[in-house]
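Record 1 of the preview.
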Amino acid sequence: MDSTATASLASLWDEVSGTQPDPDLWVVIATLGAALAVVIPHGLWRVSRNAITIAHEGGHGLVALLTGRTLTGIRLHSDTSGLTVSRGKPHGIGMILTAAAGYTAPPLLGLGGASLLGSGRITLLLWLATALLLTMLVMIRNAYGALTMIVTGGLFVLVSWLAGPQVQAAFAYAVVWFLLIGGVRPAFELQAKRARGGAGDSDADQLSRLTHVPAGLWFFLFHAVSLCSLIGGGRWLLEM
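->
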């Protein structure tokens, strides 16, 4: 029994950590088109932006934990806004990094995903994403957020366990393209909203108060990270 279990675990690990064949170029292009189709039109973006909010709030939560803060809960709202609450010093590097992690998380996750896909590790990407989603679900503190996480995490579980290699590859590429492209739009939307007098307590404003650096420079950082991630990640995805 022990040897059988060990062999099974070893086989599973080999499958997860191993490489898979790259999809055809037309699949990569098609998934790029699909990502653009759900990011650019305003009506579809209002729905698909929920996934970017998951990555945004997940970035806040992960960095809060990594910097020694206590993560108390995450909320996801139907208007695609979110809130991550952590306890710790209200100032200092931990709080600054936590606040800066939101708008930079989706494009950086996309860049990391593109790196994995560029090296042929499709299965590893899907399993890591599933693990992160299931871990985040534990910290959700409202019904809409829980439903959103269950639907999203369930989709990843179904694809990871039941879909064939070609479907898994197409799904993985679509997700990474979506993070790279969808990670660009929120900072521009926030900047436009602030120009109209709204969003006075945005991440950029919090960072400005914490660091005494103008909010405009933080927007520059958000734009730089998202656009550089899109360019770098896109090159990895298109190199066949």
